[in-house]
TrEMBL record:
GO terms for biological process: P450-containing electron transport chain. It comes from Panacagrimonas perspica. Signal peptide: none annotated. Residues 2-105 form the 2Fe-2S ferredoxin-type domain. Pfam families: Fer2. Its cofactor is [2Fe-2S] cluster. One of its GO terms (molecular function) is electron transfer activity. This is 2Fe-2S ferredoxin.
Length: 106
């Protein structure tokens, strides 16, 4: 088990315990983290789990896939460290990861 720190745009922090193999989105939903909705259930089709992975963990989060990139390209709040949290699988290397939410997700 590990830990994910979700930080809302207003700075409010939500720490959540994560299991290896689960997506960051599923961890957020399981822990009622505000701002991560996962409306599509993790299929990378809605963008309601968009977040920014802090630079320290970007490599450990893996590469952005084509489906994810299509959704992120349509977001006005996309940044180089944007990810759909449904497409990032929690691993030991991500223990302590900081995930920041865009201003539109509250």
């Amino acid at each position: 088990m590990g830990r994910i720190i979700f930080i809302a745009h207003d700075g409010e922090q939500h720490a959540a315990d994560a299991q290896p193999g689960e997506s960051l989105m599923q961890c957020a939903v399981n822990n009622l983290v505000p701002g991560i909705f996962g409306d599509c259930g993790g299929c990378a089709t809605c963008g309601t789990c968009h977040a920014y992975i802090d630079d320290r963990w970007r490599a450990a989060a893996g590469e952005v896939n084509e489906d994810e990139l299509l959704i992120l390209d349509g977001s006005e709040h996309a940044r180089p460290n944007s990810r759909l949290t449904c497409q990032v699988t929690f691993t030991e290397e991500l223990d302590g990861v900081i995930v920041r939410l865009p201003p539109v997700q509250r």
